[in-house]
């Protein structure tokens, strides 16, 4: 653009006809405006691409973080599957399990939002790697959720049975 403006100025100095000078100056001004508009569009697209790239990286980091967290929770949960019949031990198991249960419930929204964003990205541009990650997250999440709810239900049910047992025992022992 600078070269075109310089050449246009040189041409205007050489020309004697005012109409030709005005025509060249208006054409150079038009090229300048077009260049400016093109530069704005280019800057806008560049910012848009940078935002998409940043969002993609953040999404990938979130996927990796969630996959790691799900794996950690699943492995930690597998260590705590036994349920005691002893009331004190059962109460301790229930007390130790409640924070885990709440933690899973707290992360549910985050996992669902990540899965929804992944599905949205897949509708725009299907990618096998992204599809595999979404499937892995979905499968691990469903497995974790199922195991957490199952364990919570078993602990609660066992505690109810244990309380009934000790209540009946306390009523029956004096009778004996």
Summarize the helices and strands and which ones pair or pack.
Blueprint: H1 2-14, H2 18-78, H3 87-124, H4 128-175
Features:
176 residues, rod-shaped, mainly alpha
What does this structure look like?
The protein is mostly helical and 176 residues long. The chain has a single domain (1-173), classed as Methane Monooxygenase Hydroxylase, Chain G, domain 1 (Up-down Bundle), CATH 1.20.58.60. The chain contains four helices and no strands. It has helices spanning 2-14, 18-78, 87-124, 128-175.
Low-confidence stretches: none
Number of strands: 0
In angstroms, what separates the terminal alpha carbons?
106 Å
Q: What is the CATH level 1 assignment?
A: Mainly Alpha
Largest sheet: none
Using the coordinates shown, work out and report the CATH topology: Methane Monooxygenase Hydroxylase, Chain G, domain 1
User: Roughly how many Å is the radius of gyration?
Assistant: 35 Å
Report a brief summary of the structure.
Helix content is 91%, strand content 0%. It has 176 residues and is mainly alpha-helical.
């Amino acid at each position: 653009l600078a070269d075109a403006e310089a050449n246009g100025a040189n041409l205007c100095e050489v020309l004697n006809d005012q109409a030709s000078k005005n025509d060249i100056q208006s054409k150079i001004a038009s090229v300048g405006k077009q260049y400016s508009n093109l530069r704005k569009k280019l800057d806008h697209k560049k910012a848009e691409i940078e935002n998409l790239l940043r969002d993609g990286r953040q999404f990938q980091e979130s996927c990796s973080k969630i996959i790691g967290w799900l794996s950690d929770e699943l492995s930690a949960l597998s260590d705590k599957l036994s349920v005691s019949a002893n009331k004190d031990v059962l109460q301790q198991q229930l007390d130790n399990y409640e924070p885990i249960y709440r933690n899973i419930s707290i992360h549910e929204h985050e996992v669902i939002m990540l899965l929804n964003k992944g599905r949205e990205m897949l509708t725009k541009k299907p990618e096998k790697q992204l599809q595999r990650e979404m499937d892995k997250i979905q499968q691990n999440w469903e497995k974790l959720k199922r195991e957490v709810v199952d364990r919570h239900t078993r602990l609660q049910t066992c505690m109810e049975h244990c309380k009934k047992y000790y209540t009946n025992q306390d009523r029956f022992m004096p009778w004996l």
